[in-house]
C-alpha cells in the first residue's frame, strides 16, 4: 500500500474517533512510518491518537510529536501535580507500595522504580494519563528480576496445551527480560494466547511477536 493511501486511511480513522478533534491532528507518511503532529486537549487523547494510527493496515511505525494543550483549566503547578500523582498511585491496588518514585517538570511526569510484573508498570501509566495537568509521561520503571527462560517457556506451553490445537508449532526464546515468539499458529486467537502467557510471567519486560498465521 502506498503512503498516500495509508495517510488517507489514518485521517479517516481519526475522523471516526469521537473522543478526539481530528482537525487538530497533522498526519505525514513516509515508507509506512506515520508522523503525528498538532495538539490535543489532554494526555489521554494523545495515546488514543497513537493507537488509532497503529491499527491502520500499512502502518509500520508511528512517530508522535503531538503537544498537549489544556484549553479550559489553568495550568496546574508541578508541586500540586506531583502530589496528585502520588495519591493516585497510593490508591491503586495493582501497584506495589513504595515501588515507584516520580518527578514532575512542566507537567512531564518521570517514573522510576521497579515492579515484578509488566502489567504493574503499565498500570502506573494508565493511572496517571487521565489526570489534568499531565502533558507527558516518561516511564522508566524496570521489571525485575529478569525472567527465567525455562519458566517462560513452561508457562506458555501449559497455556497453549489447554487451548491450542498445535502448541508445538510455537518457539520461545528469552533474552534478558525480552521474550521472542516465533513459528506459526492456526488462528489469531492462539497468537494472542501465547502473548498473554508470556506477559504473565514475572520479569518479562517486552514481548516480540514474530508468529505467523499458517
Automatic annotation (TrEMBL):
Stretches assigned to the BON domain: 2-70, 77-145, 148-214
Gene3D superfamilies referenced in this protein's UniProt entry, alphabetically: 3.30.1340.30
InterPro entries with a match to the protein in the record: BON_dom, Lipoprotein_DolP, Transpt-assoc_nodulatn_dom_bac
Pfam families: BON
Source taxon at top rank: Bacteria
PANTHER family: BON DOMAIN-CONTAINING PROTEIN
Designated name of the protein: BON domain-containing protein
Species annotation: Methylorubrum aminovorans
